Amino acid sequence: MRRLQSTRLQINLGQAIVRLNTWAENPWRRLSLLAIALLSGFLLGSSITSVAGVLGQMDPVAALLVVLATELTVRRSRGSDSNWTLTQKLLDLGRVGFLYGLFLEAFKLI
User: Domain coordinates of the chain in residue numbers?
Assistant: First the structure.
């Protein structure tokens, strides 16, 4: 099998996570990045339920599947919180914000 040519784009995308980790070594930067992940997940969860409500497709089975899918992704990356990488923490906080957005919209409907 022939190897493809390494372009600058491919090299930069391959090193993006490493550069993000070195940028986030400062505790304040890391905290702000984690807060952005949490709030982005909340925005995504809130907007998905709003769009689904406007379209009239608010299906409890679909909501259950979304919650199960997000919980199963966390179960895959088991381990103590201190051993998690930055990307795992970002994904986990995005998931928490997403589920919080879903639950908050559900309480608005009650």
Answer: 8-109
